[in-house]
Amino acid sequence: MSDIRSYSKEFLTQFIELYKSLPALWKIKSKEYSDRNKKNEAYHILIEKLKEVEPNATRDTVTKKINSLRSSRRKEQKKIKDSLRSGASTDDIYRTSLWYFELLEFVDDQETVRKPVSNFDSEQRPSSQLSTTNSNDPQSSSNEVGRSSTTRAFPPRHSGKRGASEVDDTISAIGKRLNESKEDSHDTFGRNVAHKL
């Protein structure tokens, strides 16, 4: 697998334009993006194109090349944004030297970060309320098992920090144990001598 920098500008331009024409590989909100068959066809087209310069090209090779191109563009984009945020004058704003930066502009709106989804936000029913069917009915008991295995009642999630009083109690208990002296025969002898004096 050779480095992208070893490819000619002409080939990379054609490769990027071909990639742009295959939204199944980059346009997240299109129907084609979630169609596995269209995605496989699109990868096959890019593999054939890459085989012009790299005869042993595979799908893995193509994805690595695409990721490399997009990663380089993201890094340059970040430098530009950081330069703008810094309050630099128009003469000092970072200007990219990445020649294919403009060619990959079509992927900009596809670089969205997904919001995390929490399954702790929804209300959980206690396990005792899962079923109100008759326990003597064999069919209802099999349904209960099926439901109870798919619906879980999670205990409340703790923030990870213990209450301040619990921590204080633990620390004071440890301190008491450290301060407690365990008497041995030498301590007893010393107390005996001190008593006689």
Explain what this protein looks like in three dimensions:
With 197 residues, the chain is mainly alpha-helical. It has a domain of 101 residues. About 14% of the residues have low confidence.
Largest sheet: none
Count the DSSP helices.
Answer: 6
What assembly state would you assign to the polypeptide chains in this entry? single chain
Q: Based on CA inertia axes, which overall geometry fits? A: elongated
- If you compute it from the alpha carbons, what radius of gyration comes out, rounded to the nearest whole angstrom? 34 Å
> Structural class of the secondary structure composition?
mainly alpha
Compute the number of strand runs: 0
Give the % helix.
40-55%
- What are the low-pLDDT stretches, counting only 5+ consecutive residues below 50? 122-149
> What is the H/E order?
HHHHHH
What percentage of the residues does DSSP assign to strands (E)?
under 5%
Give the N-to-C terminal Cα separation.
Answer: 90 Å
Mean of pLDDT: 76
Q: Which labels suit this protein?
A:
6 helices; MADF-dom; single chain; 197 residues; MADF domain-containing protein; mainly alpha; elongated
Short account of what is shown:
This protein is mostly helical and 197 residues long. The chain has helices at 9-20, 36-50, 59-85, 138-150, 164-179, 185-196. It is built from six helices and no strands.
Write the layout of secondary structure elements.
Blueprint (H helix, E strand, L loop, with lengths): L8 H12 L15 H15 L8 H27 L52 H13 L13 H16 L5 H12 L1
